[in-house]
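Reviewer comment 2.1 asked that we show a complete input and output for one of the modelled complexes. We chose the zinc ion case, as it is the one discussed in the main text.
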Amino acid sequence: MPAETRLFLCLKDNYGVLLHDPDSGATASIDAPEAAPVEAALKATGWKLTDILVTHHHADHTDGIRALKNKYKCRVVAPAKGTDIPAVDETVREGDEVKVGNLTAKVIETPGHTLDHIAYWLPEENLAFVGDTLFSIGCGRVIEGTPEMMWNSLKKLRALPNETQVYCGHEYTVANIKFALSIDADNPVLEARAAQVERLIDEGEPTIPVTIGDEKLANPFLRADVPDLAVDIGMPGEPGEQVFAEIRARKNKF
Ligand SMILES: [Zn+2]
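Response of the prediction step:
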């Protein structure tokens, strides 16, 4: 049977998500921003927590780990380059596979936001959990790495199959769309997404997951090597990494 997911808000604008294998009963929490909403989601679904898969070391992704591990005795999987991540049982790096029951996640290193950042990709399920690297119509701030590093990480995610459903770490879509329209206003796919997101927010619904195929057409951070976008921001002919760095810098000040 295909994997099931359950998405819920944590803290102010973080997303928690559970990944469940109906065949084995295994359930992973992708990151653990705080324990209580994860426990509430487990209660609502009747799923039992077996694993926590950590994307990076930031406290708003790891603060719930200890309490959940104490209660459920779950395994904690974290990036090998991680720092200050509590209660880690196993570390993983580029190309490693992580089993959640019978589900297989592949580890993709995506440094930039932090140096330890990884994504979990489940090719057979068309799912990817990308933490704070790629957001809907946006990307994470480049805090520990360089813009070039982040651009290379985003290109790895962009190369995943179009139908891949992407779960990210925050609900930032409305602000991201405002910024995206400021530099890519005549993009019809982006305009359509803006209308769809407005409707979802009105209905109190999350704006994720999104697909890689849609993001490739609408997310300016994945379009930094599209010649027309470089022209739009006054950098005709500049390479993708330079255009990306400029777009990211403008977003920081937006
Ligand atoms: Zn973060």
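The two ends are 44 Å apart (CA to CA). We note this here for comparison with the apo prediction described in Section 3.2.
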